[in-house]
Amino acid sequence: MNRSSDEKFPSFHQDEYRNSSPASARYHIIPVPYEATVSYGGGTSQGPPAIIEASRQLETIIEGAGEPGIYGIHTAAPIDCTVKRSPRELFSRIARAMDASWEQGSVPILLGGEHSITNGAIEAISSRFPPGEAGILQFDAHMDLRDTYQGSSYSHASVMRRALQNGLALFQVGIRSYSEEEVEIREHHSICSLDASYLHRGRRSEHMCLPDGFPPHVYITFDVDVFDASLMPATGTPEPGGLFWWDTVDLLSRLLRGRTVIGADVVELAPRKELHHCSYTAAKLTYYLMGLAAPGLSPAAHL
Ligand SMILES: [Mn+2]
Q: What CATH code would you report for 27-302?
């Protein structure tokens, strides 16, 4: 195997694809093992290595998304989250990594870590894209719209509130657990959504799409707790009544039709050894997201 960089870290899908150089890779996998504000079960700092390890079991082709690996995958060294610095400093570091990725015409994909790492993506998107040009598609059991949570404005439960404050459009999928404050904020900002209960009632997905006025460039933030608790027990707050695999890929591909995927994150996996299907599911989802951001839909071409 010809490993070009970061030899000491395993890379995503490494049994099939060498770790491409950053300049030649379509996808930049950026591990962010950050865990500070998790409210229930812990362990998300182990998410990135578990996803990368599980990716060794992936096939080269993923049904419905072709073979994303042929476009080159670069796995970066994990972002150092251990130093006791302010969360804002960490988020800026994430933002810089994403921006460097865009500079090279690549698509950054963050592996969390807890959901608050998306604050880094929000910073990166807000400084690179003019208002109205980029929006966030959030798959999550929770709205994450609290102003603060456990005294922090940068908690996993407040991350989408920060997105709204930065003027980013938001579309939520799979929500099924929330506070009164969050319902009010959602109404106040007229946030569109496909909640889990709505999806469960058998609404047909053929005509589901993002609203016409939704921005052309879309960042996907994927909290694995959007999956049903039976499929994804390895997360901080598993919620019953969630999405399964085909619901998820069907919705992703339909909602993103005609849009350009500028990046993504997969967060909140708290891996457990005896539940390796959870790590594998997160790895397969990550690979599927790459397929949605395949060339032909180049984000760089629009910048
Ligand atoms: Mn979340």
A: 3.40.800.10
